[in-house]
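DM from R.C. (forwarded with permission)

"hey, sorry to bug you on a friday — could you get me a structure for this? deadline for the figure draft is monday and I only need the backbone to look sensible"
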Amino acid sequence: QVQLVESGGGLVQAGGSLRLSCAASGRTFSTYAMSWFRQAPGKQRELVALTTINDRLTYADFVKGRFTISRDNPKNMVYLQMNSLKPEDTAVYYCHWRTYESEYWGQGTQVTVSS
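My reply, with the result:
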């Protein structure tokens, strides 16, 4: 009953920045965790960053100091600010929304970092 739509992906040069957005609609009242994952071709999907309803933050080691996750509860939005992008950051980035009843995935947005 929750739908997620990601936006903000694109092509950027190494060292540049992008800001991804995830908009949730539907029955989001029981949400307790929101996160970003990414998946490169031939690779497993991996956690990038996570935030909880209690504002606990978790980051993958490979993005610490470069990426920041944030959220806007009244607007049901979650963001990923990506700075100092590297070619190895190239992947499809997925928004993930966890409620007490279920979990939901967006369709993903492509991020391509050129060298």
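R.C.: lifesaver. The chain is about 0% helix and 60% strand.
me: no worries. The chain has a mean pLDDT of 95.
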